[in-house]
Write a structure and sequence with these properties.
The structure holds five protein chains of five kinds. Helix content of chain A is 36%, strand content 10%. Chain A is an alpha/beta fold. Chain A is globular. By secondary structure, chain C is α+β, with helices and mostly antiparallel strands. Chain C has a single domain, classed as Orthogonal Bundle (Cytochrome-c3 Hydrogenase, chain B), CATH 1.10.645. The longest helix of chain C has 28 residues. Chain C is globular, with a radius of gyration of 21 Å. The two termini of chain C are 41 Å apart. By secondary structure, chain D is an all-alpha fold. The relative contact order of chain D is 0.16. Classes of the chains: A alpha/beta, B alpha/beta, C alpha+beta, D mainly alpha, E alpha/beta. Chains in contact: A-B, A-C, A-D, A-E, B-C, B-E, C-D, C-E, D-E. At the C-E interface, helix 2, helix 5, helix 6 and helix 7 of C face helix 1, helix 2 and helix 3 of E. Strand 5 of chain A pairs antiparallel with strand 5 of chain E, so a sheet runs across the interface.
Amino acid sequence: MGKDKFLNEKPEKLTYSGVFKKIDNWARARSLWVVAYGTGCGAIELRPTFTSRFDAERFGMRMVGTPRQADVIVVSGYLTVKTLKRVIRVYEQMQSPKYVVALGACPINGGMYYDSYNAINRLDLYLPVDIWVTGCMPRPEAILAGFKRLQELIDDGKADGWKKYIEALDWYRGNQRKIIKNWRMPNYNW
Amino acid sequence: MNIIERLKERFEVLIAEKKRKDLLIIETTKKGLIPMLFYLKEYEGYRTLTLISCVDWIEDKKFQMSYILWNFRMKANIIVKFMLDRENPDFETVYKLWPQAEAYEREIHEMFGVNFEGNPTQNEELILEDWDNIPPMRRDFDTLKYSMEKFGEREPKSRINIRKEISEQYDEWRRK
Amino acid sequence: MSTEEVRLFIGPQHPGVTGNMSIEVLLKGDTITWAKTHIGYLHRAFEKLMERRIFIKSFPLVCRICVPESDTNEENLARGLEELADIEIPERAKWIRTLVLELSRLQMFIMWYGGIAGSMGLSTPVQWGIGDRDYILDLFEELTGGRVYHIYILPGGVRKDLPEGFEERVLKTMDLIERRLPEYDELIMDNAVEQKRLKGLAPIPKEWVEEMGITGPVARACGFPYDVRKNSPYEAYDKLDFDVITEDGCDVWSMLLVRRREIDLSIKLIREIVSKMPKGEFLTRLPNVLYWEIPKGETYVKSEATRGEFGYYIFTDGSGKPRRVHVKGPSFIHGITLLERLLVGQNIADVAPILVALQICPPEMER
Amino acid sequence: MGVKIFYAFIALIGGIAYGLLLGGISRKITARMQNRRGPTVFQNFIDVWKLFRKKTAISHGVMFYLAPIFRLLGGAGTFLLVPIVVGNFYLSNFSFGGDLIVIMYFMVMGCLGMALGAAESGHPHAPIGVTRGLAQMAGQELPFIISVVVLMIVDKTTSVEGIVMAQQGGILHWHIFTYPFAAIAAFISLLGMMTSYPFEIVMAPQEIAIGPPTEFSSTFLSYMFSGRSVFAVAKYVLFMDLFLGGATNLLWAFLKTFLIFLWPLFITDVFPRFKLEQSVSFFWTWPTLIGLIDLLRIYIVR
Amino acid sequence: MGLKEVLKPLGAWRQIARKPHTILVPKVHREAAERYRGFHVNDLGKCIGCGTCAAVCPNEAIDMVKIEGIEGKKGDSGFRPRIDYGRCCWCGLCVDSCPTTSLRMTNEYIWIREAPDDFVYIPGYDIKGFEQKEKGYRKDKEHSFTDYHRVPMREKEPEERLQTFAEVVLGYTEEEARKEADRCIGCGLCISGCPDRMHIPDYIRAVASGEYERSVNIMYENNPFAELCGKVCTRRCESYCSLGNEGDPVAIRWLKRFATERFSDLKEVIRARKQELKDKSVGIIGAGPGGLTAAYYLALRGYKVTVYEAMPEAGGMTMAGIPKYRFPLPSLKKQVEFILSQGVELKTNYFVDPEKFRNLMEIHDAIYLGVGLLKPWKLGVPGEDHPNVIYAIDYLRKVNFNESVKIGNEVVVIGGGDVAIDAARVSRRFGAKVTIGYRRRKVDMPADREEIEGAEEEGVEIWEKIIPLRVEDAPEGRVKLVYGKARMVDQGPGRRPKPVLIEGEEYEILVDRIIVAIGQQADLTFLPQEFAEKMEVERGRIKVNERQMTSISGIFAGGDVANRVADAISAIADGLRAVKGIELYFQGKS
């Protein structure tokens, strides 16, 4: 088994610049690979979004099986504490630049599980979310509109949640550790 | 002789209620439960365990344990229940009778803190992970408070009773 | 490779699992020697939340218990509360409920039918299945105002009447689906590779069925005519004409056959319901829902979901809130007790088809 | 020679581009088959560019880095050894006498390099995928070797160019018509080589996430992606040369490779995948037997 | 595995010729269904801020907030729903329970933001561009959570009523009452209409759940005349009932009547805690509802209370003015007795004159004036001193005290208030043919709508726009009323139109009696000179501050003599308020 190089040092701040910036952003916006992780109810509406009736592949989006190759993680609805831990791991395994899309009311302010002891209320405390799409669940059309908006943001170079995450890592870590009692994960995993 | 009479003959039956054509509710004691389940399974054809459930009657300091059985031939359900002391919630497993009892009991152990002696996996986490409070399904666990403390909310809601607010608004002169 | 055992987690982030769950397996070569289901990734504490909410507020909650098939939950809870509060519902409401339930079963089966092929990498029927299911969701949207979560069945009946011309549109959609089905069959039932992989896969010993409480299509694939719709008829099912579908193979292929025939049955039943739909009132007036109190009691109601017997064990204590609602999802037994035993000795490649065949729906396991 | 290298490089770029384009077309066709519109045919270019410009912040050691390079080299090597247009100075690449053996070696090398790198990645799914890949290769190579041996024997040459030359003189001289059984065996084997269903058991998303490349990302993935594309084109060209009589100009080359490209696509969209042992046993029975018919025929005719 | 199974799947390639069924969103906007539960819109003008949506919301997504430009007023709390789309689950329960149907849903469904804080939204106030959308989930009034239909009150048949003075209204049965009480959504807006600020939703809820004792106890927290109010209250609360906007308001009065009537002995029911005795005493002049209310609560607070009443029975106007078919005597007796049982001393037939008033000022630490309005307003037309012109207030008192009155066969009642209707209906019970003449239109009549309807059922004729000009003597002991017709002149928005006499037209009517019921005024002649000088009087009423204290410290006033509303519940409210005022006054003094 190989040794993970960056396991215990803080990741350096990655910057992307250069003459290709425009083309890069253009390409990134048109080739969003979504990690196939249905974290909540929203997974049920992601399926129509990515299949024949609405066909997100028209915009170059597709599901990939592994976080390493993905650009976008869709937090589809509520997150339980147990899932949050996995989602953080998945997110950190993704390679920059990466984006987070939050679907539904639950990640915004708890949604219908605001009083549940096992579902988090505010996703922005734990992950840098670029796009919030509300609805319960958002229809495929709304999800597509959300992705479209994400594409516009990427085109303009404004979707930089991943940069914020590295900058404010300590703050995010603090929040994450507050609710994940037993932190059995590598500190830095990307 | 119907089943209620047959059960009464053999076991201690505290309450027997025919809820529906196909649903019978029997209350028995802690001691009589497992023999009764065994009898129902082996001799009455209630061969399937559909559900094990637990209810917290905190006022009476009791847990109600319910076992729902299903008779495939008679097409009928029976609920066998008994009251368990809430302070010392120790009971035995019925894992030997039905394999799925293992998972049900594991869940009840996690959610209510009932201890099933003989269940091999009951101490493994099933649903919760790193739980740090009293078993959450107990009535005295306040999930709203826990959630607000642990997860916070975006804009603290006033949680005022709007009805009260309105009536007090009009009530002002009386308070003067 | 070495003969030592490899510990492998399938899920929660894995394209092959049917939802957010995880299966821990020990592998010897390609063969599974031990399996354990891990759940809890979707635990939202529905049962606890319901204890804090007045009865009517539980309805938006319960339909989220099984995400793709929400109506079964609503219907079960509504029927349970009606029984406890002694409310008689109008005849038309019963029929509309039955129609909604059958539509919901049908859409789930169609999605499943594509999904079983998808679990082995054949993605074409997945795309078709989910696409065609959308036409039923369109019907739901028109009827209930929601695509996935309907909150349509309330105690006392249903929330709104059928819109004008809805019956014709239902029949039209049924025609459409019936036209499409042979194309699915060509690709799934008549597929050499499919048959080679599924026939004889993961046979369930017959004695497990009663012992473990296996229900639904899985039990029916083992030759047990167990169907709640027939055994303890609810709503308008006792007035419908149908037979319980059984197969005798006990393997995944039989489960596929059962479900394929269920699709035909559902379409037939929907046609029958539409033709027999009575006129009249669809909602009895409830007491003021804000202060609705139900006398102390307990009951167990169940219905036939696509995955098996879905049960609600409801306690009321005379207050405006339920004392306890225990939701018995069929996947709890299928996904933990049965799956852990069934996977032993299987090839790692067959995990996905077995998962799909048992139709395990994680949210109803942990609620 | 310098000029030749230059032109070979151009051809390589062209090969990658053609491979990516074919990939795009296949996505489009698959989409239409699935009742949807699908991405643009240039989607793969965008994907590769995006991946290329992403950075990898993770490493699992040297072999991990080298694996995609191996893969790309394997693909490029195969591509550069097969003559695209026979007799054309610019487009015959580095083909030489006896190159068929080298080509087959190259075809294996890419996979082996990949296997080493993937095994290094530390993800449990990767070694499973690698084992499957190697076993699968053992399966699919057998019928392919049989049919190549048939061609080598009848044409008395081990060079691709020689085989192409032997097929000149009309459509009926193509080996697909003269030695149909060998061709069938080889084309079934092509399905395995192209990892098309039902023989797509290496990546198997529903079973082992995505198999060997699970841990690969960004730039490495883009190398692998391009490597795969050019590898695919190389195989199409090789099959064209071996069975469809090669090409005398670029237009023919495009046409024939496109036809060959359609064949795996034709199968892949309508079948699910086999299990590993089913796949291997399939290769060792049906295509092998079919290939053997021709071998037997040659033997008898002599 | 035959060849057939290998070839058959390839048939799927037929699909390639088929047109894809992909919907080209977002290029094509796909409108959601007619009933789709999308984002909310609220008609702010229609919304009354009852908070039902917030109460029924399963997720605490709805907060009621004050917003600019909307002030609370009677029947409108001034709050408006604010919805948090980080909480909402689009179940539509709020829409189904909105009593005014102002809240509804559109079929709009796209709401995408980059910041998580942009999801709080006040429908109707924050303009989002989809307010005008017609499609979307709406409330179906007949099939929703709100029951807009009142349980009808059973009454006696008009013919039967005319025979006796027995109560007209039969009252709810228990089942009816619980059903009616259950309609209440508990918003509390009715409280804004009640002068006494009774805890209406609470006691109605208690009725609905069958806890009648608790219900009566809640009423007695601030109204010791609950039964009286249950029968004859002017029930302003009902006009602010949120259900009244789209349907019938909850029958608050009848429910109160139902609950109180169940108990014949209030002493066993009311569990008010008496405080320890204090060495202060209060004198109350006038044993009307206001005075007795003050007496009751002062007694509960431990003060020594004496009530002075000029008439032989306690009850004031409710005793003397309200006819017994509306308010039977035993009911009044029961309530008064209960109040007296709390240690209140009552002196009847005690007519306060200036001398006695000085004396009372000596012996009591505070005085409460609940003297009511006794002097009737006169018509102010020539000839009204004719003996056949009688005043309704005197007439009703005589009837109630069983004194003999003669009214003859034909009567005209002048006025449009409750007293006029009472006089008319009483006269009908004596067999007279009754006409009511009112100077405005029928819709302008201040009397209770149900009373007017009841009167008409009983055969009372109502003439609109009648202005009396003079009264003339007529033969055979009769009297002639000469009157003119009025036309209504609009006074601008929000004001009642004014009747103006049409000159040159005169009509006359020959009747046995003319009953004048155009209001009463205060009679303050009992006040000694030195007090009368200091007492500020405004438009015929004693001026009081918000604690009912007159301009003379230590003297409090309430009821009809001090307020302009002049009904029982206002008098009760004044009494209650005065209790607090008196207590504060004592605290300040000591």
